[in-house]
Each structure stands twice: as structure tokens, then as C-alpha cells.
Specification:
Length: about 240
């Protein structure tokens, strides 16, 4: 059950929507993914065509809406879907939600390398985890900072509402490692240990587990080649 009714639209209606919107980002196979029109974000989720006998398809868009409606009940700000459509001919779901003012944590840190923002951000991630929220797609470009200075989640379809120690580790590894591909390696510059410590200061994790937490993150980062890059950088 989603909290928004699904409107079935034709191929013509879908094409019309695409033509009248501004493209922000293409996705896999260069298909339009994020668009904008009249202050609204229009997000496309594609699903694979399945043989007729298979009734169940995994609808990411539907999950996205469910998560977006559930997060506020945990006191977490996120986008607010207002329209849900599905176009069978294009095998896609379309969700419309207001474009928020503000920029992502990543954009903000690239524009101004602000240690205080790293600290606030680490505290916020700890807060999410303590509430039992695993924001799987949680790299710094999927957190927006709204005009009030509050954090807000986008890309919420993969959110989970169960948290455990290894998920905390995984989430921080993803966050830190994700920035690595971009020339401007934010966490390396700030210090990943420092960021983990900022997180641990706020997280509900026993002090006796702190060393294990650090060690596991480092082990996973090393497996991803994170430290090799650091050596290369110093050369
Ligand atoms: N509600 C919003 N308000 C403001 N900007 C937004 C909003 N939604 C998306 N954006 C902008 O569009 C960009 C891409 O959007 P989004 O993160 O939803 O797509 P994506 O990262 O390509 O998708 P996915 O992570 O599902 O593969 C964001 O980084 C952000 O700059
Ligand atoms: Mg994103």
C-alpha cells in the first residue's frame, strides 16, 4: 500500500511530461531520470519488463513513496511526494515532489570546506542510526541542507528501519568511500578517523566497542582500496 494513488498514464502523456520538463540527470542506459518543472522534481524509476506469468514486480518508486511517508514519523525530514504515476509502455514509475531550497552536504562542503559542517553531519548520521534508520543510499549528495540548516534525505527508496552494528559500519564506509571517486576527496582531507570520532561522540555505542568500530571501518575501506589512493596522493 502506498499513501498516494497511482495514476496510469499513456506513452503520449509520458512523452509530453518529458518534453515539457527540464532534464537534470540521466540514469542507466541514458534514460531520463531526474527532471524539473514548475518548482517540482520529477523522478523516473524504470523496472524491467517481465514475462506475463510473473505478477510481482519490484517497484522502487512505490517503495520510495512508502519510505518518504514513514520517515517523518521518526522525526526525519525528507521530500514530500505529491503525485505517483506509472507508464506501462515505458516500464516506468514517476514521482513528483517539490524541489527544496538548499544544497546537498557534498555541494556545501566542496564550496566551503567547513569542519563544523563535518561535525554536524557526523552527529546527524549518528542520530539517524540511533533511531534505527539505515539510509543505504546515504552518500553526502543524498543529504540536503534546507534553509533552516536542517538535514533532509533524498533518494529514500533503499531506506531500512532496522539498525545493527555492522550496518552502522557499512553506512559510514559507503559515505566515506563514495567521495573518493570525485577528485576532491572530502573525508580524506578532513580525516576519516576524525569523522568517525565525531560520529562516535554522538552515537549510542558503548565506549568499549569504539575501537572495534574504527578497526572494522578501516578494514572495509582498505578492502575498497581507499588507503592506496591516499598513498598515491602523497606521491
Ligand atoms: N527535492 C529536491 N530538492 C532539491 N534538489 C533535488 C531534490 N531532489 C533531487 N534534487 C537534486 O537532483 C540531484 C539528483 O537527484 P537524486 O539524488 O534524487 O537522483 P540520483 O542520485 O541520480 O538517483 P539515485 O540515487 O536513485 O540513483 C540531487 O543530487 C539534487 O541536487
Ligand atoms: Mg542521489
Amino acid at each position: 500500500m502506498t499513501c498516494l494513488p497511482c495514476k496510469k498514464i499513456s506513452l503520449e502523456e509520458c512523452n509530453q511530461l518529458l518534453q515539457s520538463s527540464r532534464l537534470i540527470r540521466n540514469g542507466y542506459l541514458d534514460r531520463p531520470k531526474v527532471l524539473e518543472r514548475d518548482g517540482m522534481i520529477i523522478k523516473f524509476f524504470y523496472y524491467d519488463r517481465l514475462p506475463r506469468h510473473r505478477q510481482v514486480i519490484s517497484l522502487r518508486g512505490r517503495r520510495f513513496i512508502q519510505r518518504a511517508f514513514k520517515l517523518p514519523s521518526y522525526g526525519i525530514k525528507t521530500i514530500k511526494p505529491v503525485q505517483y504515476m506509472r507508464c506501462k509502455a515505458r516500464s516506468c514509475e514517476i514521482i513528483v515532489y517539490p524541489k527544496m531550497e538548499g544544497i546537498s552536504v557534498y555541494e556545501s562542503l566542496v564550496a566551503s570546506f567547513d569542519p563544523a559542517l563535518f561535525q554536524r553531519f557526523a552527529a546527524y548520521v549518528a542520530h539517524l542510526h540511533d533511531k534505527g534508520i539505515y539510509f543505504k543510499a546515504g552518500h553526502s549528495d543524498n543529504y540536503l541542507i534546507d534553509p533552516k540548516g536542517d538535514f533532509l534525505l533524498i533518494d529514500v527508496d533503499n531506506c531500512r528501519f532496522t539498525m545493527y552494528f555492522l550496518r552502522r559500519v557499512k553506512n559510514l564506509v559507503y559515505l566515506i568511500d563514495h567521495a573518493r571517486g570525485n577528485q576532491y576527496d572530502l573525508y580524506m582531507r578532513y580525516g576519516e578517523d576524525r569523522f568517525i570520532n565525531d560520529y562516535l561522540k554522538c552515537a549510542n555505542i558503548k565506549p568499549s566497542k569504539h575501537k572495534k568500530f574504527h578497526d572494522l571501518i578501516k578494514k572495509h575501506l582498505a578492502a575498497k582500496g581507499y588507503y592506496e589512493k591516499e598513498i598515491n596522493k602523497k606521491e
